[in-house]
Amino acid sequence: MKNGVNGVALGVFIFFFLAVTVLGFLAARWRRAADPLHLDEWGLGGRSFGTWVTWFLLGGDLYTAYTFVAVPAAIYSAGASGFFAVPYTIITYPLVFLFLPRLWSVSHKHGYVTSSDFIRGRFGSKSLSVAVAITGIIATMPYIALQLVGIQAVLDVMGVGGSDSTNWFVKDLPLLIAFGVLAAYTYSSGLRAPALIAFVKDALIYIVIVVAIIYIPYKLGGFDDVFSKAGAAYAVKTHGVPRGSLVSAPQAQWAYATLAMGSAMALFLYPHSVTAVLSSKSRDTIRRNTTILPLYSLMLGLLAMLGFMALAAHVGGKGYNAQLAIPQLFENMFPSWFAGVAFAAIGIGALVPAAIMSIAAANLFTRNIYRDLIRPDATPAQQTAVSKVVSLLVKVGALVFVLTMDKTVAINFQLLGGIWILQTVPAIVGGLFTRWFHRWALLAGWAAGMGYGTWKAYEQSSPAQSHFGGNSDMIPWIGEKGYIGLTAFVLNIGVAFVLTLALRALKAPAGVDETVRSDYTTESDPAPADPTVPGDPGVSPGLPEPAGA
Amino acid sequence: MPEAPPDTRPPVVTPSRVVAGLCLLVPFVALLWVNSYARLTPAFIGIPFFYWYQMAWVPVTAALTYVAYVLVRREERARKAGETR
What we know:
The structure holds 2 protein chains of 2 kinds. Chain A is mostly helical. Helix content of chain A is 69%, strand content 2%. Chain A has a single domain (7-425), classed as Sodium/glucose cotransporter. Chain A contains 21 helices and 4 strands. In chain A, the strands form 2 sheets. In chain A, strands 1-2 form a two-stranded antiparallel ribbon. A two-stranded antiparallel ribbon of chain A has the order 3-4. By secondary structure, chain B is mainly alpha-helical. Chain B has a domain at 37-75. Chain B contains 2 helices and no strands. In chain B, helix 1 runs antiparallel to helix 2 (49-84). The model of chain B is unreliable at 1-5 (pLDDT under 50). Chain A binds chain B through residues 80, 83, 86-87, 90-91, 93-94, 97-98, 217, 222-227, 246-250, 253, 256-257, 260-261, 284, 287-288, 290-292, 294-295, 297-298, 301-302, 304-305, 521, 529, 531, and chain B through 24-25, 27-28, 31-35, 38-40, 43, 45-48, 50-51, 54-55, 57-59, 61-62, 64-66, 68-69, 72-73, 76-77, 80-81, 84. Chain B: The chain crosses the membrane at residues 18-38, 50-72.
């Protein structure tokens, strides 16, 4: 398959990569506000993004290179079961519609930068907010690592670096360069860099998708042929077990539905989603986005189809790394120059979320560990300085992950990341609507969910590995296989509920709530006195700083 | 003299909120009930039912969410107008 470097494709790839780099550094001057040293500026883009920028930013953020590579790869490997990503990204938006405007309002009112800030303010509990912060950071790190894996896959198919070289330095050099550039412009421009680059990324991705979904089936003889060939490939049995199926079999439907539901609930509590949401300039921006973000889900569904096409085009063979299937399909099907465009789309698609994730993790560390536990009197300027450095450290950590560990480890942690993030739902979403839950009960529920989820995930074995081999297990009392994260979440809620009843009966101190009811529905600062003016279309440079966060 | 409660909250459940809630609920029922669409036919331009049906829910959900958005926004504005009067 590999026959040296594809010069044309590589040239196109490098061209886009350089263009994006320039854009990343220029982004620092985009919509510059009065106080560039405040963490709101570097870490939230000044909380000024309107509907379209937010749309691009969230799209760039949530639909990562890993999604582009892994979802079709899952389809390629097993068929229908990989398609759960589509219902998952559909039903996530009604959820967002319900709870994120409230998070936006209360964060805007009190100057919260992270979801842990909110937890601390709502429940007056540092231990709970630190638990949520740590959960966010450890779930994000392997996610960043997977973005780098995505870049690696593209480089590998193009014939630069990757697994063929024997010299470790030559092998990893392209990745190191890509990584260094990413780190440099994130450091200097903060959230503005990925927001601006997201435009390029999405434009490229949409072009590639539209071309791929028309051109490749045309070359393969139409969708009829693609699906009948794929169906035949899934029917091939190894050790009496078929490879996959074209529709979800009855015994797999619980897993399909629980995975979709659990992932949908987790998606918007990832630190990088919260960061992107809080950077928007109004409540309405978020709601309006829930009606236009599904466009990306359509794209995801079309991308998933590429998995069948890779199968029909006979990409790969025995023991083939499924993650390479899609880049390889592009290389086989497209003329070199367009393959280069496609690779650039995947590569840049990895850089955008990696930047946002590292900023989000850095914000969590700075606000909820550094400021809350180490230096309570840190000024906004100091917080920004710490965040910038931490964003570098987080990326170095992810790089070490990719270079030293087996890749399956990163994927395992990613799987755990979803299970873990789900355990912050009771505290965050619960807290947005009610203060009935007791802070200690939430902490205990969190611990129970984390423990159960990690243990069950560890127990799963697959033909390839003896631990962390999957994300589904028998659901107690129901007796069907389902997503471990959702089972752990139910346990979490149950523990929190029972203990809250007990703690309330014992009159345990509830902690100070610094928020009031109306904080959850408040609009942007310059209150639109005239209800006929639908939000402020312009950019308000330098929003008034929230007093004493 | 009957004392007016200081925080006269508008009712939490209103007709337009119920409709908005239903709009948001429908996609969950449709998509999580996997057995209702786990079949190959009828195919659409060669794509099995299982796949095109789920993708068709993308625009449907977007439209439903938009209805909910309009309803909720209209009500919020009406409330705000009531407060400032």
